[in-house]
Amino acid sequence: MRNMKLKIDTDTLLNSWEPPRHLEHPYLFFSKRDILRLRHKVELILGDLNELVKKNRSKIKKLKRANLNEVKEVTLLSQMATESAFTYALTSDEEFAKFTLDLIEIIKVKDWVMPPHRPLKVDLGVANVASVLGLVYDWLWDYLDDSLKEEIKELLIKRALEPFRIISSKKLEWWTVVTHNWRSVICGCMGLAALSILGEYDKFIECLREAIKGVTVVFDRIGVDGGYDEGVGYWSFGIGEGVKFVEALKRVSKGEVNLYEHPKLKITGYFALYLYTPDNNCFNFSDCDYRPPSSWLIAKLASEYRDPYLQWLAWKLRSENPYYLIFYDESLKYKEPDLPPHRLFRDIGVVVSRSDWSDEASFLGFKTGRTVANHSHLDINSFVFYAFGKRLIKDLGYWPYTPNKGLGFFDVKERRWYYEANSTLGHNTLLVDGVGQVYGSENYGSILKAKFTDAIDLLIGDGRRAYAGMLKKFNRWIIFIKPRTLILVDEVESNKPRKFELLFHPDGKLQEDDQGLTIVNEPAALKVLFLRPSQDEPRVISYRLSRSFYESRRGPTVQENEYVSISPLLKTRRYIFVTILHAYKVRELPKIETSIIEETHDEIALRVKTEEKRVEAKIRLKDLTCNFKITR
Question: 0.90 exceeded by the pTM?
Answer without folding.
Answer: yes
